[in-house]
Amino acid sequence: MKDVLDHIKKTIGLEEEDEVKEEQDTIIVPEHSFYEIIMMKAKNLDDFDYALNQIIEEKTPIIMDMGYLERDSPEDFKLAGEKLKAFRTKTGGEAILLCKNGKNTIIITPPEIKLIRK
Amino acid sequence: MKDVLDHIKKTIGLEEEDEVKEEQDTIIVPEHSFYEIIMMKAKNLDDFDYALNQIIEEKTPIIMDMGYLERDSPEDFKLAGEKLKAFRTKTGGEAILLCKNGKNTIIITPPEIKLIRK
């Protein structure tokens, strides 16, 4: 009886099942991968806006030196601060000051990446 | 003839194939997901060793304030620096100073997460 079944299986094409197995072997890549952290200096408001957009669009965390902006154009620096506040409330992302003392470096992360304080 | 094939398919159990289909529908989660960046203060060498281990084992980037270690135990601070150098050469990970001026904050990333300077 077994032989008959084997023959039947062959005739109706067990290959289908093999194909399915192969499909299962394919690796599924996650929609977003977080393999990059960008480090940059915001020398003007355009730099800052570009960065904020990157964080929202590409889900890339950015470590940004705001020192230049603070020194060279305090008005834009203030504006950037307001944009950051809006970013945090609107997206649930985070912006944390890493160091003051002239350098004024912050890290900004999209809501998908959590900053854990330990 | 088709009816016969259908009957044969039933008798040898097409259910198998259905099960395989279901398996295909399951979502495959990537081995590592990079949804966290840890922020911590290294108050002693144990803190530092724990952090370095987290980076290697869990692939989690860590932003670490080394200021305490530098002030309170310069010897351990020096030792930590050597361990960082070894970590970079051995794993290909990165360690970059974000700010000096007393705070001495660094970011350390596993080789899987690239720090991009812009």
Structure description:
Two copies of one chain form a homodimer. Chain A has 118 residues and is an alpha+beta fold. Chain A has a domain at 38-109: Translation Initiation Factor IF3 (2-Layer Sandwich), CATH 3.30.110.150. Chain A has helices at residues 2-11, 15-25, 45-58, 67-72, 74-91; strands spanning 36-41, 62-65, 94-99, 105-109, 114-117. In chain A, strands 1-2-4-3 form a four-stranded mixed β-sheet, with helices on one face. The radius of gyration of chain A is 26 Å and the shape is rod-shaped. The A-B interface holds A 5, 8-9, 12, 16-17, 20-21, 23-24, 27-30, 33-40, 61, 63, 96, 98-99, 101-103, 105, 107, 109, 112-118 and B 5, 8-9, 12, 16-17, 20-21, 23-24, 27-28, 30, 33-40, 61, 63, 96, 98-99, 101-103, 105, 107, 109, 112-118. Strand 1 of chain A pairs parallel with strand 5 (114-117) of chain B. Chains A, B: It comes from Methanobacterium paludis (strain DSM 25820 / JCM 18151 / SWAN1). Chains A, B: This is Cell division protein SepF.
